[in-house]
Amino acid sequence: MLIDLREGIFRNGRDFDVPVVINIKLDDLKEDQSFIPKNKTVIVADYVGIKSKEAVRILTEKGYDNIFSLIGGISDWESDGMPIKIDKNNELTGGCACQLRPRKINNDK
């Protein structure tokens, strides 16, 4: 199981291509861990591995043993050629963070 903490622009049209991915905000994870099995290995990820370290600390304090942070997050995951799904309609482009915008506009809305 992989828990993905990314939200908003940090998703950048990219998702982990693994069988079980749960998307949840860190604040929501702090409030509710009932969906996380204590008898399975769980990897927590974000964009570069910062929030995931905090999530692992929180979950360890709650009694979880098999919880791990994905160092480097989805950024290193993609760079290492691991399986990923890319939605071109939600991929961002721009010269700097202040100019980020969707690459393509989805006209289905």
Structure description:
The chain has 109 residues and is an alpha/beta fold. The protein has a single domain (2-102), classed as Rhodanese-like domain (Oxidized Rhodanese, domain 1, 3-Layer(aba) Sandwich), CATH 3.40.250.10. 23% of the residues lie in helices and 21% in strands. It contains three helices and eight strands; from the N terminus they run βββαβαβαβββ. The chain has a four-stranded parallel beta sheet with strand order 3-1-4-5, with helices on one face. The chain has a two-stranded antiparallel ribbon with strand order 2-6. A two-stranded antiparallel sheet has the order 7-8. β4 (42-45), α2 (50-61) and β5 (67-69) form a beta-alpha-beta unit. The longest helix has 12 residues, at 50-61. The chain is globular, with a radius of gyration of 15 Å. The model has no long low-confidence stretch (mean pLDDT 87).
Write the layout of secondary structure elements.
Blueprint: E1 2-4, E2 14-16, E3 21-23, H1 26-31, E4 42-45, H2 50-61, E5 67-69, H3 73-79, E6 84-86, E7 92-93, E8 101-102
Parallel strand pairs: 1-3, 1-4, 4-5
Antiparallel strand pairs: 2-6, 7-8
